[in-house]
C-alpha cells in the first residue's frame, strides 16, 4: 500500500500528499504521545507533516518513488520530538479548533504508568519499543527511522521489553 | 496481559482536524479570515507565506477554509486594510508575474487619500509606454485594499473601473480616506491633468497633498506636461508627476 502511495506521490505530489497525512497521522500521533508527551503530540504531529511536505517537494521523483515512507516520516517526527520545536505562531490555525478539543481519543487510564516505565529505558530502547509495539513499525522501518542497523533495533526492542517486564514485576 | 498487548493498547487516533491543520500549514489549502472594510465584509485569503487574496466575502475561493492567520503577522492585516498599504504584512504573490509584482509594489506607495494614473505608474516602473499593461495589473490585483489599486485612476484623470465589486466601491473607498472623487472627475472632464502654484513655480498631480496648500488665486491648471514645462514650471518632488 505504501509503495503505491509513493508511486502516486511521485506522479502527482500535491493531490496525493493529503493521503499520506491520512495514512500516517495515527502512527505519528500515537508514537509522539509516548515519546514527546500527550500535550505536545498534537502540535508536533502537524509539524511533522508540514516539514515532510516541504522536504518531499524538493526530492526528485525517483527518490520519492523508492522511499520507505512509514519509516522515513519518523526521521522527522523523532527529530521534532527531540527538540520539542513549536512554531504554531508561523502557521494558520483552523477556526473551529477549540470547539473540537475534548472530543479526541482519550488516553487509556494506565498511560501514565506506561510513560513512567518507558521513561526508565535508555532513549534508543524507548524509541525502538514505542515504534515497534505502540506504532507497529517493522524492524526495517525502525532501522530507517533511527538510522541504526535492523539487528541493533531488534536487540534494543528485546532489551527494552525485558526491562519493562522486570519493572512490572517490581511493581507487583 | 503481556507487555506487548499493553503497549499496543496505547495506539491512538490523531485529532480529527489534523489533515486540515496540515493542509493549512503547507499552504495546500488556503485559509481565510473575515474583516470589516468600507465596502462591506471582505475575506482575506492567506497561506503561511502571507496574504494571497482580498475578496468580497461572497466571492471567496470555495476551497479556502476559515482559519486564524499565523500569529506572527495576524495583527498586521487590519492595519494594512485600514492604511491601504501592506506595511509589515507579508504578501504571497507567488502566482503573480514579476512585472505585475513590480507594478503592485509601486502602487502600494501611493499615499492615502491621493490618486495617481495608470500613466504615472507606468513612468514610475520605468516603462512609460506600458500604461495598458499597468491597467491589467491593477484589474487583476489579487490584494485590493492592501495594495491600493483604488488609488489608481485612468490616464485622462477619470476615476475609472474597479475590480472589487465595481466602480462605486472605488468612489466609496476614496471618499472614506478623504479624497474628493467628484472634484477629480470635474478636473478630468475639464481636461486638467496637472495643477501648479504660480508662487512656487511647481506643478503636481491634482490630488497631491501639496496642491491643497495652494490658495485659489494662485492655482494654475495645465492640460499636459508640456504646457506646464513650457510655462517654466518644474515637477513637484513629492508626487513626481513625470516619474
Structural class of chain A: mainly alpha
Side-by-side strand order of the widest sheet of chain B: 3-2-1-4
CATH superfamily of the largest domain in chain A, by name, is: RNA polymerase sigma factor, region 2, helix turn helix motif
Helix count of chain A equals 10
Report the end-to-end length of chain B measured between terminal Cα atoms. 82 Å
The largest sheet of chain B is: 4 strands, mixed
Task: Estimate the helix proportion of chain A, in percent.
Answer: over 70%
Question: What are the defining features of this structure?
Answer:
heterodimer; A: 172 residues; mainly alpha; Rna Polymerase Sigma Factor, Chain: A; Arc Repressor Mutant, subunit A; 2 domains; 10 helices; B: 243 residues; alpha/beta; Double Stranded RNA Binding Domain; DNA Methylphosphotriester Repair Domain; four-stranded mixed β-sheet; 30% helix; 18% strand; elongated
Describe this structure in words.
- With 172 residues, chain A is mainly alpha-helical.
- Chain A folds into 2 domains: 1-107, Orthogonal Bundle (Rna Polymerase Sigma Factor, Chain: A), CATH 1.10.1740.10; 108-172, Orthogonal Bundle (Arc Repressor Mutant, subunit A), CATH 1.10.10.
- In chain A, 74% of the residues lie in helices and 1% in strands.
- Chain A is built from 10 helices and 1 strand.
- Chain A starts with a helix and ends with a helix.
- In chain A, 41% of the residues are buried.
- Among the domains of chain B are: 26-83, Double Stranded RNA Binding Domain (2-Layer Sandwich), CATH 3.30.160; 192-243, DNA Methylphosphotriester Repair Domain (3-Layer(aba) Sandwich).
- In chain B, helix 4 (98-107) packs across helix 6 (131-139) and helix 5 (118-124) crosses helix 6 (131-139).
- The model of chain B has no long low-confidence stretch (mean pLDDT 95).
- At the A-B interface, helix 2, helix 3, strand 1, helix 8 and helix 10 of A face helix 1, helix 2 and strand 4 of B.
- Strand 1 (93-94) of chain A pairs antiparallel with strand 4 of chain B, so a sheet runs across the interface.
